[in-house]
Write a structure and sequence with these properties.
single chain, Immunoglobulin-like, five-stranded antiparallel beta sheet
Amino acid sequence: MMSCNCNTVLKRQNRGRLFLLSGCMVGLYISACFAQTGLVAQRTISSFAGKPAFPQPFQMRNWPQVSRRFYKLAFDSHASGSFLPLIHIIQGTDSHVIAFVMPAYVDRKPDSRSSSQALTDMGAVWGATLTGRDMSGGEVNYVRLLKVFFDPKVGHGLFGNNFSSASPQATAWYTVFPDITAAAISARYPEEKQLARMCLATARTWADAIPHFRQPDGRYNFNYTGFDFSTMRPVYNGKWREPDMAGGIAWVEYMAWRRWHDPVFLKAARACISYLSRLAPADNPSYEVLTPFGALAAIRMNAELGTHYPVGKFLDWCFSRYHARPTWGIENARWARQDVNGLVGAVNCPPWRPWGVGGYAFFMETATQLWALAPVARYDQRYANALGKWILNAANASRLFYGKFHSAARQSDPGWPLGESLIAYEGLKYRRDNPHQPLIATGDNKTFLDPGYTGDSHDPGATNYCLYGGVYVGVLGGVIKKTNVRGILRLNLRATDTVAPASYPSFLFYNPYTEAKAVRIIVGPKAINVYNTLTGAFIARHVVGRATISITGRSAVVLVYTPVKGVVSYKLHQTLINGRVIDFMHGRP
């Protein structure tokens, strides 16, 4: 970063805006490089390092607006029109609401409990929460209704993907991921005591299972498909393995420890992360959505507990070709003259989908990785540049999951305006060996331009508009906000975090341009100080209303908005104000 040595004077105008007057510049300006002491060296994520900083073409959606409009539609049980309503309320014999259903895909009206999935229903509640909706108030308490996915018959109890049916022995992620989502929701609604008890039981169930992954030599091995709680043994089905369950379980256990402080949970989390730590870099354990959560758990443990887990390796796994599922990883390519860098999915011809050579990116997998990794730079700012660049790419490319960005011929279900604007297709398929089928918005629910694949549904009313994935749009809406500079986003580092230590507003801004850019920040009517964790110093004090920061080209800043009269203290590697950590790396060990 460049240095600023000129003397400055702060002057507040009657309009309530901050003006910084200096020999370098007159106007609304704060140098983001005001202090140089303790500049944190940035680390790369190797498999994404060579990708464009500024994706092209650039068409960033207003994700907060898209999210709010989607959830307004999704939770309107009285909506009318084609394919509406998207939600269906289930009542018991006494007319009380006992559940709600959103189908995995937009198609026929679900008429039984078997139509519901936790991936969809929990994801909808979580995503709506991230946009600021209170999902426990109103006519229907949607948070309370999630109890239908809790299965008390498994250990102390577990959440599963279907009503009262957890099956971790068949495939681990379909249980671990609902456990993660339930825990995240419960932490945002602590007044829902029953859900909290269920999440506590879930953590105990997995903690009981952990010792049974231990081998005779004392080391843990999670290289299985799932876990059978009836026999208390790990299970391999002879077809595929899901070793990333260790990462998902680590997140569940560490967040449980942060919430309830039972040392059994911390011991379980450490066992899971120790397994991941011993794996070779080439042995990427990723199978489905869980590795990024394990990476965040390890990063938080390093920051909060002073451990030394190899988090660089964990983050590389999130962005490289999977070993447990070799055809999957992060898309690093241009499809049909569109940058799709940063999307998650199949990166070559998937053997279970005989569709041709190319790729298949998915909205749910992309959004859930963003959910897990968005908080990382708050705990380890060494990855601020890398994550800022990835989120910019992924958020831009995610528009392509929506029909409005494709011609009618390049999507499976054109002609429904609500869907094209607000509901994501399940995935994007690219076939580089067939010029007539380049980039297509589609999904697995029905056949589309692919005679070799029959699809999962023969319903003539089926579509590939995918609610099980699209409900996670709230992750993008909660994290991402545009600024006054095209291509520079404000990323809320606290939006998707769970059971986080008490903190102040924290934001990452990444500049993809080669030159410095002046970006406006809005801090509100109350005076605050602005701290940059990349330099370990305050860049402005007594800021009110709006200010402008300068960000060096191809770099990021992580800003924390702190109280004006806050008392600074240090605890080992942490810097605190009024007892709240603002920086996990610039302490005084």
